[in-house]
């Protein structure tokens, strides 16, 4: 068999596997894989520096399928190239990540072939895609990571990091706003190692892109500072190769390759129509398409002889050689640069570097205190100084979020080693880039005002689904920010972040709780964190008088207690904890026994055993008052039906802080009043 015929057979295998799997599942998207099979095949076989037998080799090229609805294309590639399964503790097993049986269980319960590709669930999937625009946005984070790692860890004679990031995307991806943010910052940073391959089939779900998407995408990307290449036919392997080569040889800026394709290629009735997008082709149409491919019409899930071998001898052999050479280089590097090698080994296992916490500050008691954003800035700098792969930035709010690393410089197009990333006013892609950096094993953070968490919620959610320890920092966390008014005052954001499964929300009460919060953040391996901080000063509590801040690790702890069983428990978070303390003092003076609980994290508290939970919130005390400058939603879980909440039930208002606290009831008198009423109610 000639080379060309076998290549075509491999491509048609990818196509027919997708058609058969979608048909068997009675659901899925056959059309894009049918069209894109040659595009992905040529890339994997000719260019991708990837070793199926070592799929977590750190310098591998990253391949992202941003149009995640075409998941069967990726599953087919992972299957045919024999990518191995990797365990949660990073062991590569002698088992394929996707077996033939797995392909046949496409979209079924517990299978490793879910509807859209999921990182952590299926080895070989580099990021979770499906929400259009996210994959390409993650790719920018990965490309930044490759450059930063190279600038930080490569040494003369040791090129440890120079990998490329390839992302396949569709019309939908490029219609999404987040992809525009991503392309804009990638162009600004002149990322030379980033290549997006755009499946320009001029079809999306509603039909022709003439209905809603008619701009000149190429011109738009040129304006962003990208190189734009064109391939007029997705089946033209030589033209594809030429474009891939141009990307690799010319560099200097990111590359967009616009590939014209026909969705559902080969299907006589559905090719080029939206009908090939999101449903099985049907038995008759599949037969007809197979006939067009020169395929046995009745064969199902057929992998002809020679196909797997072809993947082995091209992608497999090249990848294995590159990985083996890299490992040799790394072994030598380890001898000459043992400290750096140690960092890289820990990084790859998501472990902490030696001495990471040695300068974490403790803050002296101070009644006037300091904003938690301020103390967080100090703690972050102290952490990052001894934790070399902590990096990040803000969405154009550094002076406000206090997230600048003073000892490092900005990341720049010509100098990718800076640990301060200026994301610009691009909150959404900041979240997605942070995810891309976290997927590259860096401890990345992005910061903005809590109100704008809404602008990056899709990325926060995905960091939780992917179980990556992304760090999302939010300052100006309540109506307490004052005069900027209700557009800037978060109300429902805190409860809505708490609703995201797996996300740890931390709202520390004072500077020492901030230190403890960062201690917890640093130790995360598979949970993203939202760190919620004040704009305004809060007292630094006297820890000789109150319980130590290490209680933060348990999510909630008794900060100050009454003698004997309390009449009421006041539960506060963040800036409201000191208010609870003041109220408890007043209650005490009036003969009412109050306990104060600081509850920086619901999620961490929920993970504690029953005995601990009871020790903090005993069933016997039903009079409980939660105090928090946020929508009250969800607090009944902790205060119970007899409890009450001093919180927000409306949007805020533009006014000086004092007036707002008065208006919305965040005063000692109001908390005292609420406590007494709750005690009375609980007795009924
Ligand atoms: C953010 C987001 N919005 C909507 C969808 C639902 N959706 C899935 S595919 C698709 C159309 C995508 O069109 P295109 O990228 O051109 O893919 P093609 O049909 O050409 O394969 C839509 C709207 C989604 N997955 N993500
Ligand atoms: Mg399309």
Write the layout of secondary structure elements.
Layout: H1 3-25, H2 31-47, E1 62-65, H3 71-80, E2 84-86, E3 92-96, H4 100-104, H5 134-153, E4 165-170, H6 171-175, H7 177-188, E5 194-200, E6 203-204, E7 207-208, H8 217-224, E8 227-231, H9 237-250, E9 255-260, H10 283-293, H11 307-336, H12 338-348, E10 366-371, H13 372-386, E11 390-394, H14 398-401, E12 420-422, H15 427-439, E13 443-449, H16 457-466, E14 471-475, H17 493-498, E15 504-506, H18 511-522, E16 529-532, E17 537-540, E18 557-560, E19 568-572, H19 577-589, E20 594-598, H20 602-606, H21 610-616, E21 624-631, H22 636-639, E22 644-648, H23 657-664, H24 668-683
Parallel strand pairs: 1-4, 4-5, 5-9, 8-9, 11-12, 11-13, 13-14, 14-16, 15-16, 19-20, 19-21, 21-22
Antiparallel strand pairs: 2-3, 6-7, 10-17, 18-20
Helix pairs in contact: 1-2, 1-3, 1-10, 1-11, 2-3, 2-9, 2-11, 5-7, 5-15, 11-12, 13-18, 15-16, 19-24
Main sheet characteristics: 6 strands, parallel
Q: Provide the residue-averaged pLDDT.
A: 97
The share of residues in helices is 40-55%
The strand line-up of the biggest sheet is 12-11-13-14-16-15
**N→C terminal distance:** 87 Å
Number of helices: 24
Second rung of CATH, namely the architecture of the largest domain? 3-Layer(aba) Sandwich
Structural Rg: 28 Å
Number of strands: 22
**Poorly predicted sequence stretches spanning 5 or more consecutive residues:** none
What would you call the shape?
Answer: elongated
CATH class bucket of the largest domain = Alpha Beta
Domain Transketolase-like pyrimidine-binding: 370-540
Protein name: Transketolase
InterPro entries: THDP-binding (IPR029061), Transketo_C/PFOR_II (IPR009014), Transketolase-like_C_2 (IPR055152), Transketolase-like_Pyr-bd (IPR005475), Transketolase_bac-like (IPR005478), Transketolase_BS (IPR020826), Transketolase_fam (IPR033247), Transketolase_N (IPR005474)
Binding site for Mg(2+): 171, 201, 203
């Amino acid at each position: 068999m000639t080379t060309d015929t076998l290549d075509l057979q491999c491509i048609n295998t990818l196509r027919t596997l997708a058609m058969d799997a979608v048909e068997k599942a009675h659901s899925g998207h056959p059309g894009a894989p049918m069209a894109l099979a040659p595009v992905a095949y040529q890339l994997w076989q000719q260019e991708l520096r990837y070793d199926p037998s070592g799929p977590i080799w750190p310098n591998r090229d990253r391949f992202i399928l941003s149009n995640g609805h075409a998941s069967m294309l990726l599953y087919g590639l992972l299957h045919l190239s024999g990518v191995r399964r990797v365990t949660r503790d990073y062991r590569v097993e002698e088992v394929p990540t996707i077996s033939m049986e797995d392909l046949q269980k496409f979209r079924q319960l517990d299978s490793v072939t879910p509807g859209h590709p999921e990182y952590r669930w299926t080895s070989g999937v580099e990021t979770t895609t499906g929400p259009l625009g996210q994959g390409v946005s993650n790719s920018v984070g990965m490309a930044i990571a490759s450059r930063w790692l190279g600038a930080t860890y490569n040494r003369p004679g040791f090129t440890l990091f120079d990998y490329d990031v390839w992302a396949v995307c569709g019309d939908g991806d490029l219609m999404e706003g987040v992809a525009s943010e991503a392309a804009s910052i990638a162009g600004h940073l002149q990322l030379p190692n980033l290549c997006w391959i755009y499946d320009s089939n001029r079809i999306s779900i509603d039909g022709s892109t003439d209905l809603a998407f008619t701009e000149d995408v190429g011109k738009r990307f040129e304006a962003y500072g990208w190189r734009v290449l064109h391939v007029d036919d997705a089946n033209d392997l030589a033209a594809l190769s030429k474009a891939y080569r141009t990307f690799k040889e010319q560099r200097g800026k990111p590359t967009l390759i616009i590939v014209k394709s026909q969705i559902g290629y080969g299907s006589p009735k559905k090719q080029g129509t939206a009908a090939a997008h999101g449903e099985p082709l049907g038995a008759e149409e599949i037969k007809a398409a197979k006939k067009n491919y020169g395929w046995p019409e009745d064969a199902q899930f057929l992998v002809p002889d020679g196909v797997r071998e072809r993947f082995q001898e091209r992608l497999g052999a090249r990848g294995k050689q590159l990985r083996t050479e890299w490992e040799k280089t790394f072994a030598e590097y380890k001898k000459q640069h043992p400290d750096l090698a140690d960092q890289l080994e820990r990084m790859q296992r998501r472990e902490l570097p030696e001495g990471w916490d040695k300068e974490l500050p403790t803050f002296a008691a101070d009644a006037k205190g300091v904003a938690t954003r301020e103390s967080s800035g100090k703690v972050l700098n102290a952490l990052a100084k001894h934790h070399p792969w902590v990096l990040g930035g803000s969405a154009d709010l550094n002076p406000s979020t206090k997230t600048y690393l003073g000892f490092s410089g900005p990341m720049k197009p010509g100098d990718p080693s800076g640990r301060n990333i200026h994301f610009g006013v691009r909150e959404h892609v900041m979240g997605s880039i942070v995810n891309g950096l976290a997927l590259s094993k860096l401890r990345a953070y992005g910061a903005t005002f809590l109100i704008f968490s809404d602008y990056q919620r899709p990325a926060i959610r995905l960091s939780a689904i992917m179980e990556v320890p992304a760090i999302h920092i939010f300052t100006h966390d309540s109506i307490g920010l004052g005069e900027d008014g209700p557009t800037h005052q978060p109300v429902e954001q805190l409860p809505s972040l708490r609703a995201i499964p797996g996300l740890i929300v931390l709202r520390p009460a004072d500077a020492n709780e901030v230190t403890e919060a960062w201690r917890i953040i640093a130790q995360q391996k598979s949970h993203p964190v939202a760190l919620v901080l004040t704009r305004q000063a809060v007292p630094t509590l006297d820890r000789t008088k109150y319980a130590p801040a290490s209680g933060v690790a348990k999510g909630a702890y008794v900060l100050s207690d009454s003698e004997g069983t309390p009449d009421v428990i006041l539960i506060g978070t963040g800036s409201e904890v000191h208010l609870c303390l003041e109220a408890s003092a007043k209650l005490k003076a009036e003969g009412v026994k109050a306990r104060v609980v600081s509850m920086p994290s619901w999620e961490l508290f929920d993970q504690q055993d029953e005995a601990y939970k009871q020790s903090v919130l005993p069933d016997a005390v039903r009079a409980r008052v939660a105090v928090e400058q946020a929508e009250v939603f969800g607090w009944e879980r902790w205060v119970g039906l007899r409890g009450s909440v001093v919180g927000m039930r409306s949007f805020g208002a533009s006014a000086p802080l004092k007036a707002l606290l008065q208006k919305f009831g965040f005063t000692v008198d109001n908390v005292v009043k609420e406590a007494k009423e709750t005690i009375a109610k609980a007795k009924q």
